Amino acid sequence: DAGITQSPRHKVTETGTPVTLRCHQTENHRYMYWYRQDPGHGLRLIHYSYGVKDTDKGEVSDGYSVSRSKTEDFLLTLESATSSQTSVYFCAISESWLTWTNEQFFGPGTRLTVL
Amino acid sequence: DQQVKQNSPSLSVQEGRISILNCDYTNSMFDYFLWYKKYPAEGPTFLISISSIKDKNEDGRFTVFLNKSAKHLSLHIVPSQPGDSAVYFCAASASNAGNMLTFGGGTRLMVKP
Asked: What is the pLDDT of residue B89?
């Protein structure tokens, strides 16, 4: 199994509070991704990173920001959580940008509930 | 508008029989397709993939078929085993978008002993 951990694994918070989710990898992979999983929508890309301090937006980036100050850590921040951000969040990593040479490895997920 | 769709939210099959999971896509730029398997409380894990230059890829009990003209792919599991019970996600990517995956909504497979 790829060495990917996510913390916390579960979190309940209130609307309007800031929340930060952490993804940590021990594989030294260059690319890291944050997805959210919602019923009927599968996984949707929020943000991704192609190196330290290099990030870009995905399909559903509104309300989220990310930071990557070290190769091994990718942080996802909800500046002011809303109920629509209640979801399961997955971090993923990949060695290269090319899908057909390697797949993405996923972390165990963080279940976030915003009341 | 979802570019990758899995129209069956759930599927139930008997152990030993064939499971067929379907996936449709609308973006003609997609040229690489993957299936991921997900157990409860775990992250998705890669199962099998296929490039658009092929119409079939086989790996043990798992075979993926691609019909480009119909923009349809399917995953066959033969024979199905109770341990195959999971949610299966179809995903697609386009060469010009690198490793940006677009996922379908998932199909929950239940294999009954």
From this structure: 97
